[in-house]
Amino acid sequence: MVALVSLLVVIALSLLITRIAAVALTLTGLSPQIARFQARSAFTRAVVVLGIERSDDTYLGAPTESTRLHRGDIVTVYERRQTLENLHLRPADARGEQDRRRSQAQHREHLTTQ
To answer: How far apart are CA 58 and CA 26, in angstroms?
Structure first.
């Protein structure tokens, strides 16, 4: 029983923290959708994309998850160094693709439980 109550408290606090962060981000001028996405990404320790500089010198700040990358884009991210190193070392083969899909599924699972 204590474990269940503890789990519910942790979930409630997680929801509260991400909502507060999303509200704070909307106060900086971000749309509610982007603010929610960025807050959840930061909370779940996913790689947070801060912006994308396109090859034509345009800059997209705080892109959404539906934003597509193009050849020549420069992506500015925020993440723990170890996570970025793991991405850099991921092989460009079927095993690397499997790792990518597993990471993506874990991230989606975190977002849906928030």
So the answer is: 23
